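Reference record
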Amino acid sequence: MENPMENHTLNSPILLLEGFSLSPRLSLGVWAFIFLSFLFITVANGLVVCAVIADRRLHQPMYLLFCNLAINDMVANTNVLPRVLLDMLRPPSERVITYPECVYQAFTAHLLATGVRAILIVMAFDRYVAICHPLRYSQIMTHRTLARLIVSVWTVTLVLVSILLGLTIRLSRCRLLVVGMYCSNAALFGLSCESVVINNIYGLTYTAVLYVCSVGSMVLAYGSITIVCLRSRTLNRKALQTCISHLLVYLLSLFSGLVTIMFMRFPQARQERHLASLMYFIVPASFNPLIYGLQSKEIRNFVFSVFSRALPTRTCNM
């Protein structure tokens, strides 16, 4: 029997999001977890951004890149989680989204996810210069150089993602059920009954190149850093601490992405796959600000000062 949610409607302007299919009790627990995660992500990353902007000592390339990542994490989760939370409160038949909204959400999700990888590559270059060429660091990693690098990686990211989604929106649609918790490129071209061979080839190439460039840059940068560390006994301790922070942030992002890809190989584990796709956004964005805070005394002091000013105010109001 044909699923009524997969009627062959040609180019329907209205789509249905699949979402979770959980028991009421489990659904409530998952909803509370996602809501609290979103709240924490917004507040924690917002504090990191404010700390970097407010403290002139943090106007250095590495911290400005951390700030860029924090903004990216907030925007990425805002693009996905609020709608997921609303859809979990609605019956399946009312989880509707227009096609333009779906395309925009998919484009933004892929743009920000790719942007994270690009920024982490720039971070690897920054750490390589800081450790391997410390005397020339201030000459090489100027604010102008940093701005050029950030603009360059975001331009390349924009072009790659535009091609990715451009290949998808050219397809006609014969289905209206978007499989997943949110709109993605794969979910969008899954709405078509046309051949998607080109989409799959470009998508796989896009993913492979992204991961090869990402992992390759880490191997080259930290391979060189390791050699320098073994040869030298007088290294900048603070620079090494930021290397650890960068590696932790990168490994979190890499692990979350690989888990999502792994679950795509198991179509029968649909609910687990949906949860893994959300964890790709939630896990790095939740732990990254904690990593920045543990690494940076200035960020910790800023956060403590914010809460120390807020607590007496609450006490007086009570």
Notes: Confidence is low (pLDDT under 50) at residues 1-9, 313-318. Strands lie at 14-17, 96-98, 177-178. The two ends are 61 Å apart (CA to CA).
